Amino acid sequence: MNRLPTLFVSHGAPTYALEPGLAGAQLAAAAARLPRPEAVLVVSPHWMTAQPRVATTAQPQTIHDFGGFDPALYELSYPAPGHPELAERALDLLQAAGWAAQADPRHGLDHGAWVPLRHLYPQAEVPVFQVSLPASLTAAEARDYGAALAPLADEGVLIVGSGSLTHNLYEFRMGEAQEAAYAREFQDWVRAAVTAGDGDRLAATLDIAPHARRAHPTAEHFLPLLVAWGAARPPLPVTVLAGGIVHGVLSMESYLFGTDLQGASVG
């Protein structure tokens, strides 16, 4: 199998599971045009640990790690199998790169994993396992973390950093009806850095981008973008999966690193 691209996906609010919108259609179209992976590896801010942990679970449970939403969301299940062998390979790679990683034989799939995967692989036929996001990770370390996992893309693993291109929960909960100009400006700035292949600028985003601290009062939903970038190998053609801005402030934009899917929408 040829090397797979890596993916940063904005997983939005849990309601994305039931309301795919433009972003869900973009993920489905991209998955249809990519080789089927042996497994999907997801790094999500909804599984943060002091040191890296790798889920070696054979049959991960669907975790409903949110509250106050439509009761129908709590009835959803994503019954994809795990892949203990490839999870062990991820563990070995992290340890070889100097990370104090440990196996976790019980962790399931948090909503940062299963919600977007419902749109990528709706039949839940592709095995999935998670790798935790270290809580103290810096932007530079996030790229290194992805780089440690990069060999898996040569072995049929789709490496996914699942986060959110903008993530101001206070403003989301306020229920903004109209698109916030700052969210669009921040999204466009990040897109320019991504499509220019400027990894250093991207790593400095939360320090230098317009409205960075409003778009990300905390860093954990941005760091998976740097993990996905670090896991890709240059040259880095990019497919922009433009998902629009929902709830006024949540950019649903996603990026495939390492492929240029001709005809994919760039919004």
TrEMBL record:
CDD domains cross-referenced by the UniProt entry: 45_DOPA_Dioxygenase
The keyword Membrane appears for this protein: no
Short name of one Pfam family: LigB
A molecular function (GO) term: dioxygenase activity
Cofactor annotation: Zn(2+)
InterPro entries from the UniProt entry: Extradiol_dOase_DODA, Xdiol_dOase_suB
Domain Extradiol ring-cleavage dioxygenase class III enzyme subunit B: 28-232
Superkingdom classification of source: Bacteria
Keywords: Dioxygenase, Metal-binding, Oxidoreductase, Zinc
Family according to the record: Belongs to the DODA-type extradiol aromatic ring-opening dioxygenase family.
Name of the protein this chain belongs to: Dioxygenase
